[in-house]
Amino acid sequence: MSAQATSQATWEQDVLQAEGPVLVDFWAEWCGPCRMVAPVLDQIQADNPDKITILKLNVDENPELAMKYQITSIPAMKVFQGGEVKTTIIGAKPKPALEKDLAAFIG
């Protein structure tokens, strides 16, 4: 199971109006660390299907959203709940470190 993509067109419904927490992985095709963290996020999603939704947003294809959420380096992950950013995680991390960062949502 891999993270679903979101975009400017579906952002409101996918992220801002979602039930429960949504982690958005801001990434780009050319970003090596982004490709490294993707399978880790897929594992976290598979381990916690009822607790958190993980979506990917390609910053090259959706520059307006990247600017709006002040994405200056990738990979950057933001957890949204109730339409608001609750936490931000910058950089590729191993699974235990990401799970610790997400403990409030998946714990």
From TrEMBL:
<dbReference type="InterPro" id="IPR013766">
    <property type="entry name" value="Thioredoxin_domain"/>
</dbReference>
<keyword id="KW-0249">Electron transport</keyword>
<protein>
    <recommendedName>
        <fullName>Thioredoxin</fullName>
    </recommendedName>
</protein>
<keyword id="KW-0813">Transport</keyword>
<dbReference type="InterPro" id="IPR017937">
    <property type="entry name" value="Thioredoxin_CS"/>
</dbReference>
<dbReference type="Pfam" id="PF00085">
    <property type="entry name" value="Thioredoxin"/>
</dbReference>
<comment type="similarity">
    <text>Belongs to the thioredoxin family.</text>
</comment>
<dbReference type="InterPro" id="IPR005746">
    <property type="entry name" value="Thioredoxin"/>
</dbReference>
<feature type="domain" description="Thioredoxin">
    <location>
        <begin position="1"/>
        <end position="107"/>
    </location>
</feature>
<keyword id="KW-0676">Redox-active center</keyword>
<keyword id="KW-1015">Disulfide bond</keyword>
<dbReference type="InterPro" id="IPR036249">
    <property type="entry name" value="Thioredoxin-like_sf"/>
</dbReference>
